[in-house]
């Protein structure tokens, strides 16, 4: 069980779940959760490769940076969704149809 | 170079960082009405940054911060281009009517942060740096797209931008993680070296990773099929931001793509060898060619059906990304040369077209074709410069757009007969684009009633028009300075293995 393949497999499943979530969910916050899953799948890959590949620290550092950027992105995205709730009174992304003629 | 030595070549970015901090602090001392004065701080900072770039020894070609960033004339070219675009956009933002009810201090600070992110984008040679740079640019542009908090369309633009943006950078990140696993390093050159020794069984994983990474890059330059965000975001954002997004991040995205493909998939030469071969079994020149064809065709065909000029310009910017993508598969230094020239020309004409939209809107007009009826008679100066920009975007001589297209097609023809089909499709697309660009001119001059009163814009507006229209014409006749500048800048940091 303790092999690189296990981790890669789990990361691939997480990635697919995230993809599925982004495509099927209509709730703005749920879409963001899907994106977080994708980012964490990538993180898992980085850490697994760094641990089993006998590589230098860059995998760990990459994962740390991704966590920071994900937090910043989530903050901005949530602010935008709150603003959208204030204006549209909904967080369903399909109900936002001002553009497109 | 080690970290301490690198600082001596890092002055432009350091000055930018200080500019951002000073702008944010200065904004605290302004009342909401005066907040727009922060533009002066940002302009001053950009000017200092430009001076810092100019005084650097431009012949140095090296890496900074332990091979995280490249310092070469190629990066310097794009940094200069980005500064010019930002300065123009700051002046344009002064004239827009959309921002009047908002505090604009953060607006200018965020523009400066974007400039910093794009500086990193054009010089990154490490996967961590690539990701960080793309995210810095993206996150600030999400906020700028939604800057009009009370405006429903701006809200929607920001929402779509943040979802598509975060999604595609997540996909790219997953691709990067696979590349990291295959190569064992995040450095471009180490990855390139690892690609030499890649076993055949790893090809599938590598292809997959490349497609994922292309998704991230394609999103940045709004190439089909990663373009879905573009029309909505461009239509809903404040028009000054739309103008900016269609020029500066696109240029930085192209710089990143060129560097990435040159150094990771190329032979490590600096595009100087015309017989560049790839040693991976990936058909990525064909992949890029297909992407280019779909991008320009879809961009042009959909642009024809638009009734909103802002949205039409959004689709046209997709088409222009397609034209530039067209030469990347040639893998020649001539192709890169052509893209760089095109980006310079494109900057002036596209910013100009958006500024006309901004000005017309600030005078009580709208963004649709109907609002432009008879505009050429009501505001003759605006009508004439808009005609220049439209001709230039189509690529009709003697405008700058023609020279840009000329270099693009020359690069493709020179790449050999197997590329001719691409040139033919590109030429057909230019013809299609003529229809919708000329429709603007037709609506302005030949529809609606001619008006007796003539509106002359104030002097600052005329100056901005001239600053954008003169290059769009002059560079179509006398483009030697641009050509010289670009050919001097065509030097990459490389590590031949």
Question: How would you describe this structure to a colleague?
Answer:
The complex is a heterodimer of chains A (101) and B (497). Chain A has a single domain (4-90), classed as Orthogonal Bundle (Helix Hairpins), CATH 1.10.287.3510. Chain A is 76% helix and 0% strand. Chain A has helices spanning 4-24, 28-52, 58-88. Chain B is mainly alpha-helical. Chain B has a domain at 283-490. Chain B has helices at 3-6, 11-28, 38-55, 73-94, 105-123, 127-145, 152-183, 188-196, 203-220, 229-236, 239-265, 284-304, 309-327, 333-362, 375-378, 380-394, 400-414, 420-446, 459-477, 480-489, and strands at residues 62-64, 69-71. A two-stranded antiparallel sheet of chain B has the order 1-2. Chain B starts with a helix and ends in an 8-residue tail after the last helix. Classes of the chains: A mainly alpha (101), B mainly alpha (497). At the A-B interface, helix 1, helix 2 and helix 3 of A face helix 6, helix 7 and helix 10 of B.
Biggest interface reads: A-B, 45 and 41 residues
Overall pLDDT level of chain A: 90
**Total count of strands of chain B:** 2
Number of distinct helices of chain A:
3
CATH class of chain A: Mainly Alpha
Task: Give a quick summary of the entry.
Chain A is mainly α. Chain A is built from three helices and no strands.
Considering the chains and any ligands shown, give keywords for the structure:
heterodimer; A: about 100 residues; Helix Hairpins; about 75% helix; B: about 500 residues; mainly alpha; 20 helices; about 0% strand; globular
Topology, element by element:
The complex is a heterodimer of chains A (101) and B (497).
Chain A: H1 4-24, H2 28-52, H3 58-88
Helix pairs in contact in A: 1-2, 2-3
Chain B: H1 3-6, H2 11-28, H3 38-55, E1 62-64, E2 69-71, H4 73-94, H5 105-123, H6 127-145, H7 152-183, H8 188-196, H9 203-220, H10 229-236, H11 239-265, H12 284-304, H13 309-327, H14 333-362, H15 375-378, H16 380-394, H17 400-414, H18 420-446, H19 459-477, H20 480-489
Antiparallel strand pairs in B: 1-2
Helix pairs in contact in B: 2-3, 2-5, 3-4, 3-5, 4-5, 4-11, 4-14, 4-20, 5-6, 5-11, 6-7, 6-11, 7-8, 7-9, 7-10, 8-11, 10-11, 10-13, 11-13, 11-14, 12-13, 12-18, 13-14, 13-17, 13-18, 14-16, 14-17, 14-19, 14-20, 16-18, 16-19, 17-19
């Amino acid at each position: 069980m303790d092999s690189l393949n296990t981790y890669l497999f789990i990361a691939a499943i997480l990635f697919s779940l995230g993809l599925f979530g982004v495509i099927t969910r209509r709730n703005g916050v749920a879409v963001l959760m899907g994106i977080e899953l994708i980012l964490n799948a990538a993180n898992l890959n980085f850490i697994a490769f760094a641990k089993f590949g006998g590589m230098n620290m860059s995998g760990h550092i990459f994962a740390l940076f991704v966590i920071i950027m994900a937090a910043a992105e989530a903050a901005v995205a949530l602010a935008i969704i709150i603003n959208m709730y204030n204006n549209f009174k909904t967080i369903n992304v399909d109900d936002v149809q001002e553009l497109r003629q | 170079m080690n970290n301490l030595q690198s600082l001596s070549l890092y002055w432009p970015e350091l000055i930018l960082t200080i500019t951002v901090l000073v702008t944010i602090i200065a904004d605290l001392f302004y009342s909401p009405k005066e907040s727009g004065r922060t533009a002066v701080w940002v302009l001053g900072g950009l000017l200092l940054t430009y001076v810092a770039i100019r005084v650097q020894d431009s012949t140095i070609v090296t890496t900074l911060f332990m091979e995280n960033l490249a310092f070469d004339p190629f990066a310097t070219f794009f940094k200069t281009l980005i500064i010019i675009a930002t300065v123009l956009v700051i002046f344009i933002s002064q004239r827009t009517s959309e921002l009047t009810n908002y505090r604009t201090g953060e607006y200018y600070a965020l523009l400066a942060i974007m400039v910093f992110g794009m500086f990193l984008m054009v010089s990154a040679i490490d996967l961590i740096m690539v990701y960080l740079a793309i995210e810095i640019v993206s996150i600030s542009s999400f906020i700028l797209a939604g800057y009009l908090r009370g405006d429903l369309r701006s809200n929607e633009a920001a929402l779509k931008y943040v979802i598509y943006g975060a999604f595609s950078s997540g996909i790219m990140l997953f691709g990067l993680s696979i590349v990291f696993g295959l190569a064992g390093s995040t450095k471009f050159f180490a990855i390139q070296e690892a690609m030499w020794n890649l076993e055949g069984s790893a090809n599938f994983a590598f292809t997959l990773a490349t497609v994922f990474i292309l998704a991230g890059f394609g999103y940045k330059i709004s190439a089909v099929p990663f373009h879905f965000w573009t029309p909505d975001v461009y239509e809903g954002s404040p028009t000054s931001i739309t103008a900016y997004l269609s020029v500066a991040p696109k240029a930085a995205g192209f710089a990143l793509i060129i560097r990435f493909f040159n150094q990771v998939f190329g032979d490590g030469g600096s595009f100087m060898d015309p017989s560049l071969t790839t040693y991976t079994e990936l058909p990525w020149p064909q992949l890029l060619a297909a992407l280019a064809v779909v991008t320009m065709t879809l961009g042009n065909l959909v642009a024809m059906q638009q009734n909103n000029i802002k949205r039409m310009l959004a689709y046209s910017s997709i088409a222009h990304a397609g034209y530039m993508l067209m030469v990347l598969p040639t893998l020649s230094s001539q192709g890169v040369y052509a893209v760089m020239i095109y980006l310079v020309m494109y900057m002036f004409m596209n910013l100009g077209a958006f500024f006309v939209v901004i000005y017309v809107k600030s005078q009580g007009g709208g963004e649709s074709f109907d609002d432009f009826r008879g505009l050429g008679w009501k505001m003759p100066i605006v009508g004439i410069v808009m005609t220049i920009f439209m001709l230039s975007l189509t690529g009709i001589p003697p405008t700058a757009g023609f020279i840009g297209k000329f270099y693009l097609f020359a690069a493709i023809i020179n790449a050999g007969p197997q590329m001719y089909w691409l040139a033919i499709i590109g030429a057909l697309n230019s013809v299609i684009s003529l229809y919708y660009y000329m429709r603007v001119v037709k609506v302005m001059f030949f529809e609606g009633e001619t008006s007796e009163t003539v509106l002359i814009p104030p002097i600052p507006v005329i100056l901005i028009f001239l600053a954008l229209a003169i290059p769009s014409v002059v560079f179509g006749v006398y483009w030697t300075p641009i050509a010289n500048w670009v050919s001097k800048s065509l030097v990459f940091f490389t590590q031949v293995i």
